[in-house]
């Protein structure tokens, strides 16, 4: 058996583990049920360790400690989701334990695994049993016992894997959510795959190829058993902050985040820290974080809408949808960002989803479109990139979603050669109203006031669907029912869409309006949309009704009344 390893062997082990995880990514994704699929554990862990593998392929190291430090640093920068952050913490503690070692044996491995577990548990405010934490802790404890019996690294790693597999099988009994869905923990499974990949490399086994995805993977979770009502905190929030100074006391920040959410994990190194938290107020988390440094990246996902889309058999928008955009971003970061010289006084950047919506904003004079919105929130860097490309002295940003406003505001201090003004639009109709209030010849202050004041004149209604049966806010909702929302609050529900639209058209907001704009979504035909416009025209004879193709996902209609 192999007794010890050098830096080259360690690098190969991590690269092999990344390939192994990538090959089983979808199978791990199908296990993710806590509380709903909020970013796909297999994908998150695969992309996280993939960042380390990419860095290790670029250069060789003289010592295992150096290679481990490179791995830990890359994992922190590339960590996605709760599982990715915990994985980065496990490797960060691991790297600290062997930072001065040129080679390591089984005893060193056992100590390093223990350090990793300690780092992960310290960062998680409320560690739960039946998770990757449990699996890693049991593996580390077994490794310590094995090292006393035999100090060879292969022997110790094999013992750790056997215990990890046993602990993984037990996660179903430890975690009620897993037991209800009939699966083992996804993060724990990913950790076992990584350890096995490292051992396979040590034994000289070939690198795994990407596995073909099956139509019905074995052990796939029963997502219908997980209720949207089980989600206490809706927004899966992840962000990276560059520290103001080293050795900052993070405990007050941990306590604050724990008071506004759960599933909290904070990973850090000497220069930055990364946060994962589930909360109903992601903007508050981002605002508080700025007391500790400069926000570099933020992602926010609505887990409730993800659960509803999944239950309805629709595509679940998540960070995976941003993978292509992020790949372009990472490629662009190696070169100087494109910055347009100011050629005019004012420019405009807006966030929206749907080609029809984008066309409307372009017709109103918007320079840059950031793709995103409900359940697909762009990062500060995504917005900043469009600001840099806008050839204006002052750039107005229209977030059009309450969960994007804070990310947009982070662009203000980051843009050195242009003034950035964020208009706090919470809906697309508000953004359109703001653009219609622009006077290109007016002073900046007047335009800001006019655009902001225009928001108060807009009432936004939306038509979507019920993903499952629910007794919500006094409404007995059945799966498949149509739902009407007014300013994001439930207005009514019905199995007859025309009946629901008629009630909405007769509501005070529409009855008092002079102008009604109806934007129909990607799942609505032009004929169906015209029928809806006729309903509003008949119910609101005093209003001018305009029908426009929005092309937005999820929502059949977005309706503005002014």
Task: Explain the layout of strands and helices.
Elements: E1 4-5, H1 7-23, H2 25-29, H3 41-58, H4 64-78, H5 81-97, E2 104-105, H6 106-123, H7 132-149, H8 153-174, H9 176-181, H10 186-202, E3 235-243, H11 251-260, E4 261-268, E5 272-279, H12 282-289, E6 293-302, H13 303-311, H14 323-333, E7 344-352, H15 355-363, E8 368-371, H16 380-389, E9 392-398, H17 405-409, H18 411-414, E10 419-422, H19 428-436, H20 444-455, E11 459-465, E12 470-472, E13 475-477, E14 482-486, E15 489-494, H21 497-505, H22 508-511, E16 515-520, H23 526-539, E17 544-549, E18 557-561
Parallel strand pairs: 7-8, 7-9, 9-10, 16-17
Antiparallel strand pairs: 1-2, 3-5, 3-6, 4-5, 11-14, 11-18, 12-13, 14-15, 16-18
Helix pairs in contact: 1-3, 1-4, 1-10, 3-4, 3-5, 4-5, 5-6, 6-7, 6-8, 7-8, 7-10, 8-10, 19-20, 21-23
Supply database-style keywords.
alpha+beta; 6-stranded mixed β-sheet; 4-stranded antiparallel β-sheet; 23 helices; elongated
